[in-house]
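Technical note accompanying the year-one report. For the benefit of new consortium partners, we illustrate the data format agreed upon in the data management plan: each record pairs a sequence with a structure-token string. No post-processing was applied to the example shown here.
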Amino acid sequence: MQYTFPIILLCMKYLALFLLLCGVCALPAQAQKKKKEEKNEKNVPTPPPANVGNTVTPPAVAQDTIRKIRKPLKKEDLEAATIYNNLAKATQKADSVYAFTGTQSCCYSIPKELLACKHLQALYMAKADMSVLDSTILAFPNLQILDLKENKLKELPKELAKLEHLEVLELQKNLFTAFPKVIGLIPNLRHLNMSLNLGLMKTGTIPAEIGNLKQLEILNLGGNMLTKIPATIANLIKLKELHLNVNRLGVFPLEILKLSNLEVVDLRKNGLKAIPNEIATLRNLKRLDISGNQFTTIPDAVLELSNLEILDLRENQITTLPQAVTKLKNLKELHLEKNKFSAEEITRIKNAMGFVTNIYF
């Protein structure tokens, strides 16, 4: 027993020494672990600040989307956009509605529910039985296309001039008795269709303000029984298509001879008998329609239009074609129906114009 106590003390000393050595060896590992944990903490993303009230900061993608819908879409994007035709569905998705078409006989004016669609850029309300267009149109500041054909409109609001992105305006077959002057104030209009408004025959012309549309590329005034057009139409220097068919002009409108960018001219059924030689200056002309008039031969000046691709001479009093017509080497389509050609002349024309893809007698 006398040796037991010293032995126990000795064992305790060795145990303490062993524990001390283990602790010293563990220190580097603990330090390394702590360092790793601190590094991981640095890589943890900082949590977003708490929302103040009900305001939520949208992610970057959402912000880009918001910016996009505040601006007019590109033409191709607008053409590809879904066209809503159900008012209830459109109002439910008001923030994503770019195009809407109204059903036939649906509305006296623009439906109030539609005003929620602030980003609307194309509005098609043809045959909607509309008789009023008022200042509510300003609810759509990015509107690019406004189609109101075949309604009962008699006038347009002055606010229309504030739609600076409006490019296409369709107003054919309404009840206008005078050409709305506000149209001449729409700054970026490129396409205007005012055809078949028979009420315009009361004035027989359109106002000089039409000349303010410096961006206009397509103008359709057909079927209005106009007897003259204003000299200011010569200001439409970007015009590519001019439709003056089924009017009562009687003589070729000399004003259009200054429009050097014209590619299409439609003058059918106007009681024309002659065309001035100066038409040869319209060197970009690709389609000329002078059908349904009173020509007895092709005017010589027409034969100088070397880029002409379509020539429509049907329903005249023509008996023969001059040999010079073969100079129209780019001609692809020639309409000669309902004239006074003999069988022999038809054969001669076919032989001479073999390079033309389509000839119609």
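Partners are asked to follow this layout when depositing records. Residues 71-290 form a domain with the Leucine-rich repeat, LRR (right-handed beta-alpha superhelix) fold (CATH 3.80.10.10).
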